[in-house]
Amino acid sequence: MMSRVERCQTPVSASALRRRGSRAGVTNWLGAAALAAIALGFAVPAQAFESKVQRLPPSVRAQLTGSAWRTGCPVPLSQLRLLTVTTWGFDGQERVGTLVVNADHAEQLAAVFGRLHELRFRIRHMRLADSYGQVATRPNDGDVSASFECRQAVPSPCSGGTGTGTWSRHAFGLAIDLNPRENPYVGCGKLRDPSRRPYLDRARIRPGMVTPAVVAAFGEIGWSWGGAWTGDTKDYMHFSASGR
User: How many CB atoms lie within 10 A of CB 217?
Assistant: First the structure.
């Protein structure tokens, strides 16, 4: 039986998701096989884009508490939602991706990921275990796409340091980072991870790099791209509701 906190409709196309945007909640059931693949990150059979928005299950609340959320964070767990979407992996296979996002933007973000699926935009890692699992089990390449994390904003590589003293938009679930390796954070020509330097050449598009079409998809819901910031600092992975 469907819980009353979940809203469900028959699957719709990604273009329909985009048209409907925030005007109506669009929450699609994933097939049983796809749901079973979430925790393991297996490739799923080719399918139409599907998405699901739900309140955080107790297991996810437990996973977040202590590692990504604690008392004193700017949003309660009740203000967050689990977003599950179909994505394209770097191997060209469809996968099931999961994010924790702010409840007020969850349905709109489902529409954005519907557009990214249409574009066959590649996402390397986007599972809860990749962001919130035990450190030893997280991907070694650090190329994890994620949203919610209760933390301070990270200073520009220009200035260095680990915190700015102000909450990051990620602490509200109002920001998403896509493929940090292919879309690095750069300031004054400096990178926190020098291995990502080849991706400062934004003219040579490679899989997983943010393109104008990806920027436009987020722009349709009013989110802005860190790669368009003025000045010497660019955060090519970063999209947010506030522009910061």
Answer: 23
* Pairing between β-strand 80-88 and β-strand 185-187 as defined by DSSP bridges: unpaired
Q: Where does 54-105 have alpha helices with state H? A: 58-64
182, HSE (Cβ side, Cα atoms, 13 Å): 20
CB of 239 closer than 8 Å to CB of 134: no
Instruction: Check: pTM over 0.70? Answer yes or no.
Output: yes
Distance CA 20, CA 4 (A): 22
Alpha-carbon 244 to chain mean position: 15
Cβ of 231: how many Cβ atoms within 10 Å? 9
Instruction: For residues 186 and 218, give the distance between their C-alpha atoms in angstroms, rounded to a whole number.
Output: 21
What averages of pLDDT result for each successive group of 10 residues across the chain (244 residues)?
A: 36 43 41 49 66 97 95 97 98 97 98 98 97 91 96 86 84 98 94 92 97 98 96 96 87
Backbone torsions φ then ψ of 191, nearest 5 degrees: -125, 150
In terms of DSSP H, where are the helices of 146-226? 212-219
- Cα 220 to Cα 18: distance, rounded to the nearest angstrom: 8
Distance, in Å, from the CA atom of 177 to the CA atom of 26, rounded to the nearest integer, reads 23
DSSP symbols for 99-154? EEEEGGGHHHHHHHHHHHHHTT-B-SB--HHHHHS-GGGS-TT--B-B-----BPP
Q: How far is CA 132 from the centre of its chain?
A: 13
Contacts of 73 (CB under 8 A, 6+ apart): 150, 171
